[in-house]
Amino acid sequence: SPIVFGPFALADDNTTAKKKGAEKYVSPPATLTQNTSNIKYILDPRNDLSSEADASGPSSEILAQIQAFPKITSKWTGLLGPDHIIDAGEWYQVLKTCSGLVFLGSERCLAHFPPHLLTPLNLLDCSMVLVVDHMQTKKSSLLQSKLDLDKSEKTLRHEEHLQTAVLFSLAGAGCVLANQWHHSSVQENTSRTATLIKGLLSDGVTVGQLNWSMSLVQALPNEEEKPGSSGERSSSQQAPEQPSAKADPSRSFGCVLYGLPHLQLFTPAT
Description:
By secondary structure, the chain is of the alpha/beta class. The chain has ten helices and ten strands. The chain has helices at 58-67, 70-73, 88-97, 109-112, 115-118, 138-148, 153-158, 161-171, 186-200, 207-215, and strands at residues 3-5, 8-10, 32-35, 39-43, 77-80, 100-106, 128-135, 175-179, 255-259, 263-266. The strands form three sheets. It has a six-stranded mixed sheet, with helices on both faces. Strands 1-2 form a two-stranded antiparallel ribbon. Helix 1 (58-67) packs parallel to helix 9 (186-200). It is globular, with a radius of gyration of 19 Å. 36% of the residues are buried.
């Protein structure tokens, strides 16, 4: 059955996201609201997630999802790796001036912006950081392996998943939403990020509610069954039976929320 918060629904069937007559969601008194006009994004900063078939890589898909909500995101700005390789100075300017950050990139987030540069920043105006990393391609793996040779063990530890969330929190970010699975596929993480953005920009959804609802959904809303899938195989071609996703529903999404779960995005009245 669908999980509905306000007009946005996540479902594992063909149920529509909006139903006529559905009650409008009312934000709880403790909900924190945020002005979305100064949220920024950094997508594929090294341009190592693209392929020959798709030169723009996942950046174009995420940017299209952002631009699907022009009334909310018209003032969003950001940096795209396919345009140029993003350096630490550009990272610094984005983090110093944003009220929220959407990051999607290869390998480890803080392998792109070193921990020693993040630590002294004041991010008290940054309410939310969405980190989607741990994606790996042949190009990104070779480059990261070379870069890691010159790093100390302490630096490598600080670039790991939990330490990344801790450092963003210590710098002042209100909440950090980060995927926890290593080496997820580019397409899976791109689809999850697009779905997250759609949910966050839907009226009445807090970050905690969205993360919880998506963790209960076995299949992503925009994933369609491909030809040759289990539904079209003959009995002799059936794949070995897999453990039920209900045994560990969080694996279908795999994000962890650190910090404030009751943050809600909104657009100020003009």
